[in-house]
Amino acid sequence: MHAQTIHSIAPRPAPVKTDGLVAWCRINLFNDWKTALGTLTIGAVMLAILPPLFQWALVNAVWVADHQVCHTAAGACWGVVREKFRFIIFGRYPFDEHWRALICTVVLLGLIVASCTRACWKPWLATLWVAGLAFYYVLMRGGSFGLVVVDTDLWSGLPLTILLASLSMAMAFPIALFIAMGRRSGMPAIRSLCTIYVELIRGVPLISVLFMASFMFPLLMPQGFSIDVVVRVLAGITLFAAAYMAEVIRGGLQAIPKGQIEAAATLGLSYWQTQRKIVLPQALAMVVPGIMNNFISTFKDTSLVAIVSLYELTGAMGMAMNSDANWRPFRIEGYLFIALIYFVFCFSMSRYSLWIEKQVNKSKLR
Q1: The whole model's pTM is what?
Q2: Which DSSP category does 326 fall into?
């Protein structure tokens, strides 16, 4: 018998660490030479920009509300935010009544937070919204309980931004849902009407819709009959947002396999039962990022209402700067301040969207 030859196996390299900061940088920033080149280029640009920006924004900045000191400073003048804070946040709303606008803003934000909390997804949430909106209108409008009357033309700043954004989003979603379903309907008349609506709205900019809602629509009303400008603007934003959201939802509806609908028909489910129990839950789960992107876009688009003389957050900031020549040169700091406010709201919506995606995808991880 011949002795078998034993060959030793060469040792394998140690596994590459895939967690931790160093591993993350290696995978995402220096994975190959192209990625490394892009990382180094962006890093060089940041090193050239950030130090002067840091000097301007923090080191040499002025924090006191004194325009004379700001004019002689070499950095940013954040004192303009301290000086014009209430004007930027509440706009043309009467100064002595700002407490009413503050309470209304807190109430509306509370309703939004409750609507985003799973524990509050109960039938009473709709009643809470009706009561909260009634409270908002009574307190902002006044005229009762000894409150001074404040016309809706004077509603402005952050309270108006949140009101327009939240209500337009809430009303646009069901409209978009039915429009998306109508575009996939087997009835030619309904499908044609929904298609015409979507293409007509998407074919014009939001400014045109707001202009027509504010100036053209009243001309079509009977003599002596008028609708409040806030209501008209809210309707315009809602219809505009619904057209774009309908296309997002339609994409989700088209992604559902036809076999599932045929199986539902085989089980004897009606059209609405099929949509409610099978199609819509899956379709909406697929397009959560697109829907949230539409919500964020709608929130930012409220800044366009200034064209119809409604001064929301951006318009209130511009009015605050233009009304005082001493602070007018520091509008950049004012725009950065409201940009921070917009970022906080939009970033919060983005994080909430990720949470929703994790919730709806739990069934796929089983």
Answers
A1: 0.84
A2: T
d(CA 323, CA 303): 19
Residue 280: pLDDT over 80:
yes
Task: Transcribe 97-140 into DSSP letters.
Answer: GHHHHHHHHHHHHHHHHHHT-GGG-STHHHHHHHHHHHHHHHHH
Helices 157-183, 313-322: crossing angle, 10 deg rounding: 150
Please, which residues bridge with residue 77 across strands?
A: 62
- pLDDT tens track for 86-99: 999 998 999 999 99
Strands (E) in the chain, as ranges, are none
Q: Give Rg (Cα) of the chain.
A: 28
Residues contacting residue 48 through CB under 8 Å, at least 6 positions apart? none
Residue of 176, 248, 141, 164 lying closest to 213 (CA atoms): 164
Partners of 62 in the β-ladder: 77
Token pair belonging to 188: 């030619």
Burial 109-142 (b: 16+ CB within 10 A, else e): eebbebeeeeeeeeeeeeeebeebbeebeebbeb
List the one residue out of 181, 327, 160 whose CA is nearest residue 256: 181
Residue 77 in 3-state DSSP? strand
Provide the residue count of the chain: 366
Task: Tabulate helix, strand, coil % of the chain (nearest 5).
Answer: 75, 0, 25
